[in-house]
Amino acid sequence: MAMLEVTKLGISFGGLRAVDELSMKIEKGGLVGLIGPNGAGKTTAFNMLTGVYRPTDGGIRLDGQNLVGKKPHEICKMGVARTFQNIRLFPKLTVLDNVKVGLHNQVGYSLIESMLHLGSYRKKEQEMDRRALEILKVFDLDREAGNLAANLPYGKQRKLEIARALATDPKLLLLDEPAAGMNPNETGELMDTIRLVREKYGVTILLIEHDMKLVQGICEYLYVLNFGKLLAEGTPKEVLNDPAVIKAYLGD
Ligand SMILES: Nc1ncnc2c1ncn2[C@@H]1O[C@H](COP(=O)(O)OP(=O)(O)OP(=O)(O)O)[C@@H](O)[C@H]1O
């Protein structure tokens, strides 16, 4: 059974069919790309996978469990985490606290414990600090732990977003244009980090990306959307040499 199974997924906004009959299968530990021209429906697909939009039709299963109709926080608890096209960190929190926000999904404590600063609260706080630092290390951000997120350079903010998503301990990590706005050096580093994250945490990754160097460099399999429909799928080599895909990107 595939880790993620999307079957004939579709959504309409009024008269616009933003995604239509999208089917995808991703095996556990896979690193897969969702690509396509602007407005093809990629982010809308992510919004359906995370419960932000309810599909008009079709199915989504994670490890056999139905996700359609579930709320975003329920889907997060079931093991799906995401990052966004535009950075959405807590700029006035430290780098460490941004990751701890993600950890609260698992290691939370009760209001009473935190108000009374009970021993159990302090223990859990220490445990969260330790785990947050461990994650930051993977992203080479541990030395920035005490800095405000807002003061990090752009490339590091993007990495921190992935670190925060990872802190929720996902089975499936959805990355929406992780390399957007990065220079080639930062993109190269990001590629290494994404590979490392997959290896170290065994997480399954689906990413939207326009940077073909990144897509070719790290994805094993690609799905191509065009006008909401699946135009092609296959290995990066197959897909990026497909005349229909080239035409969709370059136009007639
Ligand atoms: N809430 C909404 N209401 C109406 N139309 C929407 C809504 N969300 C998305 N759309 C439309 O759905 C289509 C697909 O948009 P989407 O953002 O998913 O594309 P995309 O492939 O992620 O594009 P890009 O690569 O530019 O980010 C677009 O025509 C968009 O205007």
Automatic annotation (TrEMBL):
Which Gene3D superfamilies did the record assign? Answer: P-loop containing nucleotide triphosphate hydrolases (3.40.50.300)
SUPFAM superfamilies the record matches:
P-loop containing nucleoside triphosphate hydrolases
* Keyword Transport recorded: yes
UniProt keyword annotations, A-Z: ATP-binding, Nucleotide-binding, Transport
GO MF annotation list:
ATP binding; ATP hydrolysis activity; L-isoleucine transmembrane transporter activity; L-phenylalanine transmembrane transporter activity; L-valine transmembrane transporter activity
Entries under Pfam families matching the protein: ABC_tran (PF00005), BCA_ABC_TP_C (PF12399)
Organism of provenance: Butyricicoccus pullicaecorum 1.2
Domain (ABC transporter) ranges: 1-252
Q: What is this protein called?
A: ABC transporter domain-containing protein
Q: Name one GO cellular component term.
A: plasma membrane
Please give a single GO biological process term from the UniProt record. Answer: L-valine import across plasma membrane
- Which InterPro entries does the UniProt record give? AAA+_ATPase, ABC_AA/LPS_Transport, ABC_transporter-like_ATP-bd, BCA_ABC_TP_C, P-loop_NTPase
